[in-house]
Amino acid sequence: MVWAIVVAAGAGTRFGAQKQFLMLGGRSIAARSIDACRSVADHVVLVVPAERLHGDLPDDLEADLVVAGGATRAQSVRAGLAAVPSDVDIIVVHDAARPLASAELFHAAVAAVRDGADAAICATPVTDTIKRVERSLGRTFVKETLDRDALVAVQTPQAFNARVLRSAHGGGGEATDDAALVEALGHTVVIVEGNVANVKITTPDDLDRLEGPR
Length: 214
Fold this sequence. Notes:
26% of the residues lie in helices and 29% in strands. The chain has helices at 29-37, 73-83, 103-114, 162-170, 178-184, 204-211; strands at residues 2-7, 23-24, 27-28, 43-48, 65-68, 90-95, 119-125, 131-136, 139-145, 152-161, 189-193.
């Protein structure tokens, strides 16, 4: 059985609003992300800001369970995990801010876990030159240029062996994605090909681009 956790508990600091509940093409962004998970998930848990748990949510959020998130992304994922039954085999974690994730991405990630991977994450090649920098005395200095052939840009969905994901979160660690916690325990994380169309809505400009000309 597959369950999905849609993380929609962010404060939207960079956006200036809780973007996950704004509308895109007549539907809320979070609702689109829930629907995307349905391509593989038997059930979906939606994690929302605690102050919205008992109201002030869009009417189109058709999750099986809605729970309150925490102060950080990792805490919010753990809140979702607590709602997932213990006998579930595979758990998919998806950011609500990626409403255009395709069914193919979900199927590829889940298939990799079914084939034995502890975790499978969607990622795309890095096309820009990436430099590691150091900040000192109010200035930023280049320290080295990284080999972009050895780098990828990570997306969600991410799929996990449920036991491994629970173990990774068991220590209460913090990370920008769940795969980093799995990596820290020495488990296998494989890459499945992501899609550049699977954009993350971070700023108002991102949403404007998705909405197109008005």
